Amino acid sequence: MTAPDLADPPVFAEPWQAEAFALTVHLHAAGAFSWTEWADALSREIEATEADGLPDDGGRYYEHWLAALERLVTARGLAAPQALAARKHAWAKAYRHTPHGQPVTLAAGAG
Amino acid sequence: MALRVKALQSLLVEKGLVDPAALDAIIDTYEHKVGPRNGARVVARAWTDAAYLARLRQDATAAIAELGYGGRQGEHMVAVENTPETHNLVVCTLCSCYPWSVLGLPPVWYKSSPYRSRAVIDPRGVMAEFGLVVPEDVEVRVWDSTAEIRYLVIPQRPAGTEGWSEDALASLVSRDSMIGVAFAGASGAGS
After folding, report:
1. Domains of chain B from N-terminus onward
2. Active site residue B92
């Protein structure tokens, strides 16, 4: 008997990959975009990277995934690019202001 | 990357566009519940039940749903059967379209540039890298998945398995054999 799939690496290498994946599946299920539109957006990200002469061994896949999701979400007006940038900044600040070992919350970076 | 996802997620949650509990459920499903065991059950059923195989040929989406496996992306499933004359190989040349409901999420190599670009132009060379040598007199067909159509390879049933139970047969069916880079029952093939 073989158990060929047991030795496979985890489905997601890091938690953010799982979160980005779930966001896409969820937004699609909620009708924010069709799966064809999603596949087009993802293909474009991958194609752009490869056109720059950067072949991917598959390890950067979720970077493409996240870039495609940001693009689609802002293109659809689900979130404004400025709001997204501001929120990224706020989270970065919160991480810097949170004592080691404490959960990070946005309030930690406020003020 | 983590910060970018957090920013996106928290904005969408605030706007009521995303439910955090639903995100957790999705992650749990794809980490723990959906995987190649589903596809192996489909293959084992097709090997042992001629009527099921006929339904699978006619309407794979419906036949797979009979076993409780349904896609969320509204994709159309097509089962491609390996025979003594034909071997099938599946790729997504543009991104990573893959039959999630029966195989889970794709392995890293399936998403890599070399596999996506070479599977169509040099399928035998690609398969050889997985240790799979398909005889020259067997025709190799390559199927390019899309957002709308996903393919499941039905590998050939290994010889000497007459009378085996569905469970025992399913254990011979690896993920790689359902993509087409391995034969069923070939232990250790193409990990």
Report:
1. 30-179 (3.90.330.10)
2. yes
Three-state SS for B142-186 is EEECCCCEEEEEECCCCCCCCCCCHHHHHCCCCHHHHHCCCCCCC
Cβ within 8 Å, pair A84-B7: yes
Question: Is the complex ipTM higher than 0.90?
Answer: no
B112 is a catalytic site residue = no
pLDDT in tens, B110-147: 999 999 999 999 999 999 999 999 999 999 999 999 88
Distance CA B64, CA B108 (A): 25
- pLDDT tens for B65-124 read 999 998 777 679 999 999 999 999 999 998 889 999 999 999 989 999 999 999 999 999
| A55 part of contact set with chain B, CB < 8 Å | yes
Tracing tokens 């399928």 back to the chain, one arrives at B123
Q: Which of B9, B95, B187 lies at the smallest CB-CB distance from A23?
A: B9
CB B108 to CB A57 under 8 A?
A: yes
Q: Comparing C-alpha atoms, which of B85, B174, B81, B96 is closest to residue B131?
A: B174
